[in-house]
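Re: the multi-chain job from yesterday

Posting the exact lines I submitted so nobody has to dig through the queue logs.
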Amino acid sequence: MKSNDTITLAHGSGGRLMHELVEGLIARVLSNPVLDELDDAADVSGLVEPGRLAVTTDSFVVQPLFFPGGDIGTLAVAGTVNDLAVKGARPVALTLGLIVEEGLAVSDLERALRSVAETAKTAGVVVTAGDTKVVERGCLGGLVLNTAGLGFIPEGVELGAARVRDGDAVVISGTVGDHETAILVAREGFEIDETIESDCAPLHEIAATILTAAPGARAMRDPTRGGLATTLNELSARSGVGIEIEEAAVPVRREVRSVTDILGFDPLFMANEGKVVAVVPADEAERVVEALRTHDLGRDAAVIGRAGGPPGVTLRTRVGGARPLLMLEGVQLPRIC
Amino acid sequence: MKELLDFEAFREGPEAEGLVRRVRELVDGPTALMEVCGTHTVAIGRAGIRSLVPEELRLLSGPGCPVCVTPLGEIDQTIEAARRPDVTVATFGDMMRVPGSESSLERERAAGADVRVVTSALDAVKLASEEPSREIVFIGVGFETTSPTVAAALLEAERRDVPNVSVFPFFKLVPPALEFLVGVPDRALDGFLCPGHVSSIIGSNAYEPVAREAGIPCVVTGFEPLDILAGIVMLLEQVRDVRSGGAARVETQYSRAVRPEGNPTARSLLDETFDTADAEWRGIGAIPASGYVLSQDLMHRDAAAKLGIERPEPAEPEGCICGAIMLGRKLPGDCPLFGTDCTPRDPVGPCMVSSEGSCAAHFRYEHRRST
Ligand code: SF4
Ligand code: SF4
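And the result, structure tokens for all chains:
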């Protein structure tokens, strides 16, 4: 194996190898006019838009680094873009921090970076600044990414859980549980016939679609860790308005359903990386679903419930029973048989 | 708009409604049915079935979660094994967080022990052949559903001559537990919802003694909400017959998977690998012939014997009433610690630890926290 095939601690030393890594690989793959300046800080004034400024940050730790439907690079960009998008902001710029573990194949790093570049392009955001550290083998599982995102909220867009009202409709942009199930299957090597793909995708267009179809939209969230159940609980707790969800109306892929059934997991608690939950006035719900269904990422959009009553989330089950739907407690573990 | 918010159309409505109506007709006084299987407990909670049936019908959760009924002393033995430097403990995920008398496998792992979560006993055999210098100890918990797969893994280790894998045989058997439960004084039990998975191995005939000798109706039931409602209806119909002088029977709602004689292959695997023995059920006590020990030919795979680990006399956590709950005498809500000192995040007793435990299921599905 050539010495340049794998990351070594020397790549993080600040010397020539590091220079080659940053300029020869990272900056090359991510190249854009702002980043190409390669200064210690980026001048982003060219990206400034009218509206209020929105900022977010997130760190991405995922095993395996590459999984059906995406990889850590896609995830890092999509995750941050989505946090901006559900706030109603148009995402414009990102920073990217790389913490690379000694021993990672350079080709894997390059593959993840290409996903960053590609996803950023899709989402219309520019990677404006970055940082690279190399750490000793064995503490990170190969690669950790940190991103910060910058976006602008246009005049007139006002979203927040506190705005949820009695009688509003709750809409989901597609099937739930895909991402975490895909990761689980990829990580544990369960033998199943079909591949389950992560839904990992930037949602700026989905969010914009919702805002266009429902100018009165109250709140949007992306139900990542803790899943739909946890997100709905947050919305209810912040707004002080109850939410009732119809189990049978929540779209779940058949493959996801069968894997989660076997393991005793509940798709309502499983992480998504490409879905939006929106609370909109009831009379705008139909338009939102119709508009979403014309978009590739919104094909399975559905109205899944309504807001109203005392705080807390209630699930109407398939057989017509009602039970509280709580936040995820701890982690879901596979059942014994 | 009307259509979009008309959710009734989605539901398994008509069929479920019919069954629920039938349940309401059949319950004409206090009636207690016990589901003996943790998967039933979870399914009942998840589907919100208690919200559909009359209050006079009590649905009790029996000792149906293998994690819950594993005695503290046995948990302590697994922790002791994990502390040995040349031992890797391989376990189903559920066991990780079960508190022993002063630690848990999760805490031992954080402190440096080699504890790995596996999804099948065969993974342990695989680990053992990959790491010949370590002893791989598999924690054998579960009922008749899990034990055949562990038996198969042990026989595989024999066949492939993998010496460094052993097992703690902590398995429990369902029918002896049911026979014991019907003998408990001041129990209020009118019928058993018998576990579909277990029964597909042992066959519905296994419950004949409970039905015939103890006169308690048994219905082997599947795990879908409609299965459970149908099973409840069948049980209630029998209860009505028994109350008017008829005989209790074993019936099978889950006939798509369960035969009267069970699965002969799995049963002969069990016979080859294990001998029946008395076993200790946590919170309940010793139940005759309700557990397994390894057969003579496989005794060298017994982890406790191989590693020389005694079973300590453990101290049970104060105030936990899991025993009374599993015997059908109390409900989780009757425990003063429920939802306050004892939650899934910070469990006191075993019924709150396992996701299939009755306290955890009640907490998750029935309990509205004041927010
Ligand atoms: S081990 Fe079997 S009996 Fe026990 S909870 Fe699981 S399915 Fe039910
Ligand atoms: S609530 Fe906790 S302490 Fe009480 S019986 Fe259940 S597990 Fe035991």
